[in-house]
Write a structure and sequence with these properties.
Length: 149
């Protein structure tokens, strides 16, 4: 008879563990899972944008600073960000990343419009760099946070 209470305790503990496991397994995810393609794409876009801004700084005050000489960057970057926006929006539970990607596309469009108005001064470029890096960092932080179990 002394073994019976011990078995009951084990059975209750096992039942509690099964219920806890079921609750954890059924808990909805608040974020989409980590996406390596998004991580790599955003990192590549940051490098491309930084290269573009460095080129604009070097061209400041010269005929090379005009929009027409840099139009290729804007076209290529828009294609990349648009593809990223579609990808992030297609992943269930990825609304936050999709929203940030859409904001990044709007920032690129604003930069393009500003550059069309005329050459950018180094002081303007420094501010733009900070803003773009903040956007890239926010997207990457969110994506990297998804890696945690």
């Amino acid at each position: 008879m002394p073994k019976r209470p011990h078995l009951t305790t084990i059975a209750r503990s096992f039942s509690a563990a099964v219920v806890l496991l079921a609750l954890v397994a059924c808990t909805p995810r608040l974020l989409a899972p980590y996406d390596e393609v998004t991580d790599r794409s955003v990192s590549a876009l940051q490098r491309q944008t930084e290269a573009h801004l460095i080129g604009l700084e070097a061209a400041a005050g010269t005929p090379d600073c005009v929009f027409d000489r840099h139009q290729r960057f804007y076209t290529d970057a828009r294609i990349e960000i648009s593809a990223l926006a579609v990808r992030t929006a297609a992943i269930p539970g990825n609304e936050r990343t999709a929203e940030q990607t859409t904001l990044l596309l709007a920032s690129l469009d604003s930069l393009r419009q500003l550059h069309r108005l005329g050459c950018l001064a180094p002081e303007q470029i420094a501010i733009l760099r900070t803003q773009f890096n903040s956007s890239f960092t926010a997207i990457l932080r969110l994506e990297l946070a998804k890696r945690r179990p």
